[in-house]
Amino acid sequence: MEGVGAGAGFRKELVSRLLHLHFKDDKTKVSGDALQLMAELLKIFVVEAAVRGVRQARAEDTLRVDVDQLEKVLPQLVGERGSRRQWRCPAGWP
Amino acid sequence: MEEEAETEEQQRFSYQQRLKAAIHYTVGCLCEEVALDKEMQFSKQTIAAISELTFRQCENFAKDLEMFARHAKRTTINTEDVKLLARRSNSLLKYITDKSEEIAQINLERKAQKKKKSEDGGKNSREPAEAGVVESEN
After folding, report:
1. Mean residue pLDDT across chain B
2. What is the rounded distance in angstroms from the CA atom of residue B82 to the CA atom of residue A17?
3. A42-94: pLDDT as tens digits
4. How much is the CA Rg of chain B, to the nearest whole Å?
5. Chain A, 10-49: which have a CB under 8 Å from a chain B CB?
6. Alpha-carbon distance B138 to A34, whole Å?
7. Which residues of chain B have pLDDT under 50?
8. Considering only Cβ atoms within 10 Å of each terminal Cβ, which end of chain A, N or C, has fewer?
9. How far apart, in Å, are the Cα atoms of B51 and each of A63, A70, A82, B17, B108?
10. Which of B75, B58, B56 is nearest to A26 (CA)?
11. ipTM surpassing 0.90, yes or no?
């Protein structure tokens, strides 16, 4: 697909369909650049959720990331998207 | 009449399901990369949960983006609107801004390449049709 980032990512067409699903106005459109940028944003969103899940799992010393761990990191993720610095591990893990 | 409405609703539902499935696939791939990098596995439920979350976030994003564009008296959402979405976190905003410039740069180079090709007598372009309007304004 695009060479903007290595590895997996959201395809522009998928992003376009996802956005158009929720537009109130039929006339609303999205520029190609904006679609690419949204694909990046969604990718960060997912990766951030995953990485925070891993940190939580490590803090709890569990073998894998389960929904229990994910639930604990969700509020920060959805409220303050991507604000890495503000996460503090209760167990003191760096 | 009632039957028609039901079919429409069913259609929308199954359309949403297909989109969710596509999200699920991408989320799975991304989590796989993280899993390899961090050497920690994700349960299937976790991947499903992240997928669901992503789907729901898209609704918020879409509505916000539409409002931002409308506020600027535009019908086409552009990269400035997307950057507004990222405003709450400095690090995210910086990342998105950098990406935005990277994308603009790559697209500029692609257009230059295409132009060169057609000037050299090359045939059709390799690029697939882009969804939505392509704008170069920033």
Report:
1. 86
2. 16
3. 999 999 999 999 999 999 999 999 999 999 998 887 765 444 444 445 555 55
4. 20
5. 10-14, 16-25, 27-38, 40-47, 49
6. 10
7. 128-138
8. C
9. 21, 12, 17, 12, 33
10. B75
11. no
User: Which residue of B lies nearest to A19 if distances are taken between CA atoms?
Assistant: B62
Q: What does the H/E/C string look like for chain A?
A: CCCCCCCCCCCHHHHHHHHHCCCCCCCCEECHHHHHHHHHHHHHHHHHHHHHHHHHHHHCCCCEECHHHHHHHHHHHHHCCCCHHHCCCCCCCC
List domains and CATH numbers for chain B: 1-60 (1.10.20.10)
- pTM for the structure as a whole: 0.79
